[in-house]
C-alpha cells in the first residue's frame, strides 16, 4: 500500500505532533508516523509524568511540614500504586486529546516504525510486521531522543533504571543512587526523597545543574541536603558492581580518592542521545551526534527538515514544539527562522528554578558590558507567608541602556513566573520598564520590580 502527502512527519512527540497540526493549518495534506504512543517522551516518559509525581511528592512534604504551621495531621501514608495510576490517567487523557486534535486537523496517523529510503519514500513497519510505504513532498524528522547509558564497567551486569523505566517502579526503593545531577536527576532526587528513599546524587561536574546558574545550584544543593539527599559532586564513576544487599557504585574524586556508594536501586540520568534509525539509510550531515539543520530547520538533504531533541540544543518540549512549527511552515513553502533568543528553562524541584536568556558569563562572552542584581526573597511577603523564602530573582542587563539580557529565579511558582521574564526579553524591555510596572501585592513577582529598582540604585526594599 502506498499513499502520497504534502508533508510526512516522523515522530509524534512535542516536535512532531505540533509540526503535523501546524502543517495542516497551513493547508497541507499531512501524515504523522509514530512507532509508539502519541505525545513522545514528554507526555509518556518525561515532562508530564515527572510533574505529576513532583506535585504529589510536594504535597507529602507540605503535610509533613504542616505541624510547624500549627496543623496536626498525624502519620502520613501514601499508595505508590494509586499515585502511579493517577499519573497514568493524566497521560491517557492528554494522549486522547492529541489523537482528537489530529482527527480535527484531518491528519492521517500511521502507527509504525518509519524508515526513510534513499528515494525519500518512507517505509513504515507496524508492530504486526505489516509494511506501508508513505510518500510526501517534504519530510519532517521529529524522532526525538532516548536516555544515554555510559559504558561504565559493570553497569550492564546490574539492574538499573533510566527515565524510560523508572516511572513504573513497583516499590519505593529503600535507597537509590542517581547518576547525573542535571535537571532530570535532581527532579527524581526530589521525588524519591519525598517518598522516603535515601537518595544519593552523583555528578561529575563540580556542582548540580551545571548548565544553570551557580547561585541557583547552591540553593538547590542546600535544599536537597535538608531533605536528606546526599550529594556527591566532582565524582567520576569508575565501575559498578553487585554489593551485599544491592548495588555498589565506585567513584573517584579529582584528587584520585575513591569511595564506594551502596544503594538498593540505581537510576542512570546522564543525558540523552538522538534517535537516528529512521535515517540510517541516508547520508545526512551531523552536528556531533545530532542532525545538522540550517536556520530554517532544513537538513543537508533538501526537503527533509528536522526538529526537537534529534537536532540537539536545548532538549526541551517547548523548544521542540517551536522548532516543529517553524519546520512545518517551511515544509509548507514558508520562510520561518527558528527563534531561540528567549528560551525559558524550568526545573520543578523544591524550590523551583527557572531562567531565560543569557547568564552573566554568556553575556560577557558575547561582548556585552553587563550589570547584574540579585533580589533575595528573604523579605518578600508572599514567599515568607508560604514559608518558601530561600530563593531570589536575578536580573542580568546591559550596562549602558539597561536592556534585560537574562533572568534567573528560584522560589515558589517561579516556573510560572518566568514567562514574564521571557516577555521582558522578547519585547526588549529595559530595567526601567521592569522597575516601572506595577506588580500585585503580595506576590513573588514583586521581586522583578525590586531587582530592577536595585539595579537602578533605587530599590525600596533592597
Ligand atoms: P520525543 O518526545 O522523544 O518524541 C519522539 C517520538 O518519535 C517518540 O514518540 C518516538 O516513539 C517517535 N519515533 C522515534 N523514531 C521513530 C521512527 N523511526 N518511526 C516512528 N516514530 C519514531 N522538557 C520540558 O520542556 N519540560 C520538562 O519538564 C521536561 N521534563 C522531562 C523529564 C524527563 C524525565 C525527561 C526524560 C525529559 C523531560 N523533558 C522536559 C524533555 C522533553 O521530554 C523533550 O525535550 C521532548 O520530549 C522532545 O520532543 P521531541 O518531539 O523532539 O521528541
Distance between the termini: 69 Å
Known CATH architecture of the largest domain: 3-Layer(bba) Sandwich
Class derived from helix and strand content: alpha/beta
Structural domain tally: 3
Radius of gyration: 24 Å
Q: What's the tally of helices?
A: 12
Strand content: 25-35%
Protein name: Dihydrolipoyl dehydrogenase
GO cellular component, one term: cytoplasm
Family: Belongs to the class-I pyridine nucleotide-disulfide oxidoreductase family.
Catalytic activity: N(6)-[(R)-dihydrolipoyl]-L-lysyl-[protein] + NAD(+) = N(6)-[(R)-lipoyl]-L-lysyl-[protein] + NADH + H(+)
Structure commentary:
The chain has twelve helices and 23 strands. With 462 residues, it is of the alpha/beta class. It has three domains: 4-144 and 275-332, FAD/NAD(P)-binding domain, CATH 3.50.50.60; 148-270, FAD/NAD(P)-binding domain (3-Layer(bba) Sandwich), CATH 3.50.50; 351-456, Enolase-like, domain 1 (2-Layer Sandwich). Strands 1, 2, 3, 4, 5, 6 and 18 form a seven-stranded mixed beta sheet that branches. A hairpin with a 4-residue loop joins β11 and β12. 46% of the residues are buried. Flavin-adenine dinucleotide binds at residues 10-16, 33-36, 40-42, 45-47, 50, 113-114, 142-145, 163, 184, 275, 277-278, 308-310, 315-318, 320.
Amino acid at each position: 500500500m502506498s499513499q502520497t502527502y504534502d508533508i510526512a512527519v516522523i515522530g509524534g512527540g512535542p516536535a512532531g505532533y505540533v509540526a503535523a497540526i501546524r502543517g495542516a493549518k497551513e493547508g497541507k495534506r499531512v501524515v504523522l508516523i509514530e512507532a509508539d504512543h502519541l505525545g513522545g517522551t514528554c507526555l509518556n516518559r518525561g515532562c508530564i509524568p515527572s510533574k505529576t509525581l513532583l506535585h504529589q511528592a510536594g504535597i507529602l512534604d507540605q503535610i509533613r511540614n504542616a505541624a510547624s504551621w500549627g496543623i496536626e495531621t498525624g502519620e502520613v501514608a501514601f499508595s505508590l500504586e494509586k499515585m502511579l495510576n493517577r499519573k497514568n490517567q493524566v497521560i491517557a487523557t492528554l494522549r486522547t486529546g492529541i489523537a482528537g486534535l489530529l482527527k480535527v486537523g484531518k491528519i492521517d496517523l500511521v502507527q509504525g516504525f518509519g524508515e526513510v529510503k534513499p528515494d525519500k519514500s518512507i517505509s513504515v513497519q507496524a508492530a504486526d510486521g505489516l509494511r506501508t510505504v508513505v510518500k510526501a513532498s517534504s519530510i519532517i524528522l521529529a524522532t526525538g531522543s532516548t536516555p544515554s547509558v555510559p559504558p561504565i564497567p559493570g553497569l550492564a551486569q546490574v539492574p538499573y533504571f533510566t527515565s524510560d523505566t523508572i516511572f513504573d517502579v513497583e516499590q519505593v526503593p529503600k535507597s537509590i543512587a542517581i547518576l547525573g545531577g542535571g535537571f532530570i536527576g535532581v527532579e527524581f532526587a526530589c521525588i524519591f526523597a519525598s517518598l522516603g528513599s535515601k537518595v544519593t546524587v552523583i555528578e561529575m561536574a563540580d556542582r548540580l545543574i551545571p548548565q544553570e546558574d551557580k547561585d541557583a545550584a547552591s540553593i538547590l544543593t542546600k535544599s536537597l541536603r535538608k531533605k536528606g539527599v546526599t550529594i556527591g559532586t566532582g565524582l567520576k564513576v569508575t565501575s559498578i558492581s553487585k554489593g551485599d544487599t544491592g548495588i555498589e557504585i565506585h567513584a573517584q574524586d579529582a584528587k584520585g580518592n575513591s569511595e564506594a556508594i551502596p544503594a538498593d536501586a540505581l537510576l542512570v540520568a546522564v543525558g540523552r542521545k538522538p534517535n537516528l534509525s529512521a535515517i540510517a539509510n541516508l547520508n545526512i550531515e551531523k552536528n556531533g551526534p545530532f542532525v545538522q539543520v540550517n536556520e530554517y530547520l532544513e537538513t543537508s538533504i533538501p526537503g527533509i527538515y528536522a526538529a526537537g531533541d534529534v537536532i540537539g540544543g536545548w532538549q526541551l518540549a517547548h523548544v521542540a514544539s517551536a522548532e516543529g512549527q517553524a519546520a512545518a511552515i517551511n515544509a509548507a513553502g514558508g520562510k520561518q527562522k527558528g527563534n531561540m533568543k528567549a528560551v525559558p528553562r524550568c526545573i520543578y524541584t523544591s524550590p523551583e528554578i527557572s531562567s531565560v536568556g543569557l547568564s552573566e558569563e554568556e553575556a560577557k562572552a558575547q561582548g556585552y558590558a553587563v550589570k547584574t542584581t540579585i533580589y533575595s526573597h528573604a523579605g518578600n511577603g508572599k514567599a515568607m507567608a508560604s514559608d518558601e523564602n530561600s530563593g531570589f530573582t536575578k536580573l542580568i542587563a546591559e550596562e549602558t541602556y539597561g536592556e534585560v539580557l537574562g533572568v534567573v529565579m528560584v522560589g515558589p511558582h517561579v516556573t510560572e513566573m518566568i514567562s514574564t521574564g521571557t516577555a521582558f526579553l522578547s519585547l526588549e524591555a529595559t530595567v526601567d520598564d521592569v522597575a516601572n510596572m506595577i506588580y500585585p501585592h503580595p506576590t513573588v513577582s514583586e521581586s522583578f520590580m525590586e531587582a530592577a529598582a536595585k539595579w537602578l540604585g533605587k530599590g525600596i526594599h533592597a
